[in-house]
C-alpha cells in the first residue's frame, strides 16, 4: 500500500524513468553478452586453433565497444535514477510542506515542533535512500539475473533449465533470512532505543541519581540493557553468517560442481564445448552477487516504509485552518467588531470562553485584562480566525467573520504578537515580508512611524542589516519595534495587540509606548494588556476571569466598582513599588 | 590508519578473537583459490579427453569439502571479528555511562544532552565499524589481494599477471580522484539540506506570524527555491557518484580483454593451457572486491578516527567533585553552618553569594526566600556539593562538607529539586528510587505524607501506573509531591525542598508542611520558596537579595521589620485574591492565608 503510493510519485517522471530503465536493460544485456563473446572465441577459434585475422579483429573490437557501451549506459542509468529520486523527494517535500501550511493552529498546538520538522526533512530523506539505493538496486539486480539466465539458455538449454533450480533456492533463503532477521533486527533496534532512552534520562536526572546514591544500580541496569543489545547484535551477525554471504558462497560452489560434473559426464559420451563450459562457470560466478546485494537492501527498504508511513500520515491530516465560507466577498471598510455570545473550547470539553459579547466601534480601543488562562488569548485567536467560531458569532462590519476572504482578513487586520518573531533575512525583508507592493520608501515610512527608524539607521548596514535566526542579535525591544513596523506597513484597519511581558530598558519602553499610542489612532484596536497603566485611556476594558467577562467599563468606572480590576490595579501599583 | 594503533589495547584484549578471525580470513583466501584450480584441472582433462569417472569423483568430493569449509570459515570470522567489535561498543558504552555517573552538574550544564547522546550513539557506532568492518576490510583486501596476485604470478604466468593488472592502478587513481570530488560536493549538498531544515524549523516556530500575515504561499515558494538548490547540489553529487560503477566495469573489462587476448597467444605458443587461462580469469574476478574495499576502508577509518578522539576526550575529563583521599566515612549529622565569604560559579566573575553566615541547629527548619536569581538555589546546592565553595565554609556537625565521603554526605541529605525529575518507571518505583527494596507499606506511607496517595489511587493502575514519556501525564504539582515522597522515603537527616511546593495549591502545601513538622522532629529541614506561606512556620527565615542576606528572623519578626518580606507577604495575599477572582463572580473569597 505504502510502496504503491510511493511509486505513484514516479508518474511525472515516467518518460525519463523508462529511458533509464531501457539503458539499464541494454547495459545488462551487454554485460551478459560479453562472456558469451569470449566463450564463442574459445570454442570456435582458440580450441581449433583457427585464427582468421579479420574475424578476430571484429570479435575483439566488438568486445571493447560493448564494454564501453555498457559503461556509458550504466553511467546514464545510475545518474538518471538518482536524479529522478531527487525530483521525487523534492515533490514529496513540497507536498508535505504545503500541507502543513494549510493546517490549522489546533494541529500545531497538539504536535511538537521537533517531530513535525523531522517528518518534513529526516523522514523524507530516509525515503530518498529507498529511491536511490533500493529501487535501482532491486531493478538492476533483478534484470541482471534475468539477463544471466537468458545467456545461459543461449549457451545450453538443458543446463540452463537445471540452473533454474537456483532461483527458488535463493528465494527461500532470502525469505527465511528476512523473516528471521526482521525479528532479531527489531529486538536489537528496540534494545538500542531503550538504552538511549535510559541514557538520555540519566543525563538529565544525574543530580537526582547521585543525590539518591543510585549510580551503581543504574550502571547495572544500563549494563544489562547493553548486554542484551550486544546479544541481539551478535544474533544478527550469526544469522547473516548462516544465511547470507557464506550460504550463497556454498550455493555457488555446489552449482560449479554440478556444472563440472555435467560436462564431465558429457565428455564421456562425446565432445564437449569448452567455451560453453567456460561461459556457464563465468555466468554462475556472477549470479550470486546480485542476490547478496538485494538481501543487503532489505532492511533499508523496511526503514523507508516506516518513514513513508509517517509522512503519509501527515499528508492525510484534515485539521485545516478555517477557510472562507459562502460566495460573498465582503470588504472591511470601517473596522467595527462585534462578538455575540461567543463560547469556545479547544478540546471540546472545557470551555475557555463563555458567552463573550462586546462591540468595538470603528476607531475604538477595547482592552482585555485578566489573569493567565482567563481567555484573553483565545479571543484573539478567534478574531484572527486561527480557530473556527463554533458557538456564537463574530462580525466585522456586520458580516460574519467566516465569510471574509483570507487575503482581505490578513491585509486588514494587523497582529502584533507578544513574542515578536523575526525571520532570517534582513531588516527590510522582515518589515516587507514578501509583499512586493510595499516599496522601500513605504518600509522607511513604517519604521519612521513606529519610531524604529532611529535605531535601524544606526545599524552598520541600516535596512539591509542581516537578521539571524530568531533575530538573536537584536534586543527584545528592537525586535518589537521591527514587528510594529511590519504590521504598520500593511496599513491595517484593525489592530490586534498582544502586549509583551518581557521587560525592556526604559528608553526602548518609552519608544514602544509612544509607537503603540500612534498605531492605535484611527484604528479599531483589540489589546491584551499586562500592564494596566498602558490601557487607561481605552474606550472599553473587559475584565476576564475563567472565560467570562466579569467586569466591563472604562478605567474610572472599573476602579469605582472596587472589584477584580480594582484589586489588579492595586497589585500593579504595589508591583512597581516592590518590583519583582 | 593511526586509529588502529590507538585501538591496539582492545585488539590485545581480544587477541584470541582477532587472531582467530584473521587466521580464518587467510584460510578462506587460500580456499577460494581451490575452486578455480579444480575447474582448471577438470577442463584441461576434458579438453585432452583424459577425464575419468574417478577424477571427476575426486574433484567433486574435494570441491564439496572445500565448499563446506568455506561456509564454516565464513561464519566463523564474522562471529570473531564482528563479535569483538560489538564487544568494544558495549565496553565503551558502559565506560561512558559510568563516567557520566561520576560527573558533577557543572559537566552537564556545559554540554547539551543531545551532544552527549551523540557521543554515546553515533560516535560509538563509528568506532565499532572501525574495529569490525575496518579491520576486516584492511585484513581481507591485503590477504585476498596478496594471495590472488601471488598465485596468478607464480602458479600460472607472471607475464600474464602483469598484463592483466596493468589497468588496475587507473582504477585506484580514478576512484580516489572521484572520492575527493565527491567529498566536496557532498558537503555542499549537506549544507543545502541543512538550510531547508532551518527553514522548516523557522516556518513551524513562526506559524502564527505566517498565518496572521497570510504568508503561506510565499513560504511555499521560498521552500521550493531551497529545495531546488538541494536538488541541484545533489545532482552534482550524483554526477560523480554514478562514475564509480562504470569505471570499475570498464577497467575490469579491459583487464579481461587483455588477459584473454594475451593469454590466447600463450595458449597458441603452448605456454599455458586453456584451463589455466580460464582459471586466471576467475582469479581476476576475485581482485575486484579488494580494490573496491580499499576506497571504502578509507571512509570508515576517517570517521572512526574523529569519533574515537571525541569519545576519548570526553572520558578523560576528570570529575570536578570527588572524595578527598582522607575523607570521613561517617554519615553527617548535627548543626548545619554556613560561613561563606563569597561564591561564584566556575568560569564566571559574577558573585552569586556573599557574606552568608547562617546556623541551623539540628531539628530546626530554615526558610530561604528572595527574588528569582537572588541565590536561593545556589545556597542549597552548595550544601549538596553540586558545586564546591571555599573549603571549610560549610559544615555539618562541625566537619566541612568537603571532608565527608560523597556517598555519606548524600546519605544524610534528602533533596527535592526545583525541576522535578521523574524516571520512566512506575509511580511506586519512582517513589522508591532511592531505596529500591522499600515495601509497599513504606511507599504508601510517604505518599500519604506528601499528600499524593489519593491522586495515585485515582490513576488507572494505581501505584503500578507508568510515569514518563509513554506513561501517564502528571501535573506539575503531582510531580512535585512524588519527588517529595521519594526524598521522605529515605528519612534523611537533612531535607532540602528547593521551591518544591510551587505548583501545589495552598491547602495541600499547608497539609504537607504540617505532616513534615510532625514526622521530622529532631531532623533538619531547609526550604526555599517563592510563596512565603511555605516558610511561615520556619524557626528561622533569611531573605536573600543579590546573594546577600538582607533580612532575617522568624515570620513575626520579619513582619515587624517593614521590609521586603512584609511587602511581599501582603502582595501575595492580594495576588491570591485576584487569582480567586476577587469575589466578584461569587467565588468564596476566603484566602487560606488570611
UniProtKB/TrEMBL annotation, chain A:
Protein's UniProt keywords contain Transport: yes
UniProt GO MF annotations: ABC-type oligopeptide transporter activity; ATP binding; ATP hydrolysis activity
Name listed for the protein in its UniProt record: ATP-binding cassette, subfamily B
Major localization listed first in the record, in broad terms: membrane
Compartment(s): Cell membrane
Annotated GO CC locations: plasma membrane
Membrane topology: Multi-pass membrane protein
Residues covered by the ABC transmembrane type-1 domain: 18-303
Transmembrane intervals: 56-76, 130-153, 159-177, 239-262
Residue ranges constituting the ABC transporter domain according to the UniProt record: 337-571
Sorted UniProt keywords: ATP-binding, Membrane, Nucleotide-binding, Transmembrane, Transmembrane helix, Transport
SUPFAM superfamilies reported for this sequence: ABC transporter transmembrane region, P-loop containing nucleoside triphosphate hydrolases
Signal peptide: none
Top-level taxon of origin: Bacteria
UniProtKB/TrEMBL annotation, chain B:
Membrane topology reported for the UniProt record: Multi-pass membrane protein
Record-level Gene Ontology MF annotations: ABC-type oligopeptide transporter activity; ATP binding; ATP hydrolysis activity
Protein name: ATP-binding cassette, subfamily B
Cellular localisation: Cell membrane
Record Gene3D superfamilies: ABC transporter type 1, transmembrane domain (1.20.1560.10), P-loop containing nucleotide triphosphate hydrolases (3.40.50.300)
ABC transmembrane type-1 domain boundaries: 20-303
Chief subcellular location: membrane
InterPro entries: AAA+_ATPase (IPR003593), ABC1_TM_dom (IPR011527), ABC1_TM_sf (IPR036640), ABC_transporter-like_ATP-bd (IPR003439), ABC_transporter-like_CS (IPR017871), P-loop_NTPase (IPR027417), Type_1_exporter (IPR039421)
Keyword terms, alphabetized: ATP-binding, Cell membrane, Membrane, Nucleotide-binding, Transmembrane, Transmembrane helix, Transport
Start and end residues of each ABC transporter domain: 338-571
Entry-linked Pfam families: ABC_membrane, ABC_tran
Signal peptide per UniProt: none
Coiled-coil annotated spans: none
UniProt GO cellular component terms: plasma membrane
PANTHER family with a match to the protein in the record: ATP-BINDING CASSETTE SUB-FAMILY B MEMBER 10, MITOCHONDRIAL, ATP-DEPENDENT PERMEASE MDL1, MITOCHONDRIAL
Top-level taxon in the UniProt lineage: Bacteria
Ranges that cross the membrane: 56-77, 135-156, 162-180, 248-268, 280-301
Organism: Lihuaxuella thermophila
